[in-house]
Amino acid sequence: MDNSHNHSKSQQRGRIALDLEHENILEEDERRIDIKICILYGVEAEEAKEIHANYHSDRLYFLLRDRARKHGMTESTFLEKLESLNFYSYAYMVSRGQLMEMAAVDILYKGLCNSENNGRNNFDDRYISFYG
Q: For residues 28 and 113, what is the distance between their CA atoms, to the nearest angstrom?
């Protein structure tokens, strides 16, 4: 019996499986995906959180890079400016359902532009000033 054509959603692994789990998801359901990652990969909850955050980190990276390219930023400049941003924390917030993915891209892109124009990363200062 050939099982190569019998791939259900539960049999998918890697990015494809996570993409399938994220289809038409509401932001508040992001945290529930960790449980599905535990089942898909056979890992503990902490590792599932890390896998989930890494998934969003990859997605944010490519979305942000594409936006930067469309606005004329070179790859080397993008990578240099990306280092000054607290990039992974935004991916983690998205994976926890605390921030929408496109909002994270908007914030990060603004940080890239501010970093490029001002020579330093001060785009979070207003949040610190407001809440601090």
A: 30
CA distance 55 to 69: 21
**The two three-digit tokens of residue 83, written as one number:** 């280092």
In contact, 95 and 25? CB cutoff 8 Å: no
Say yes or no to pLDDT of 86 above 70: yes
Q: Give the mean pLDDT of 29-35.
A: 82
The DSSP code sequence of the chain is: ---TT---GGG--HHHHHHHHHTT--GGGHHHHHHHHHHHHT--HHHHHHHHHHHHHHHHHHHHHHHHHHTT--HHHHHHHHTTS-HHHHHHHHHTTSS-HHHHHHHHHHHHHHHHHHSS--TTHHHHHHH-
**Residue whose structure tokens are 């990060």:** 108
